[in-house]
Amino acid sequence: MPPSEVRELVRKPDNEVDLHVIHWEQLANHYTSRPEVFLNPIHLSVVKRQITRKLPTFSDDLYREMAAAFASNWNPESNFTCEVAVYRSCIKIVSRAANRVLSGVELCKSSCFLMPIGRTN
User: What's the pTM value of the predicted model, to 2 decimals?
Assistant: First the structure.
């Protein structure tokens, strides 16, 4: 999103920028899954309650994993400019970070495990 449009987005009411509606449309859930999967999303309560409550216990691991994922996807040590597929690399970074917390250090780096989640290959 261009920085010039951020202020306008922030001013909109919540019902106009509801991610639930956007995700419903983008994922085409009415064609791809049962309605109860999306209308009663259990993962939201897991994130809000269980993961948020335990955040201090894994914040160091999460930080290290995100730093490693950024380094492997964006090559910050490079002295030259290069193109970065931002959306695709962010999916890889978020998949690794989330799975470091949910699945452990071994699986979060496994491309076989992450491929169906974030399409890492």
Answer: 0.53
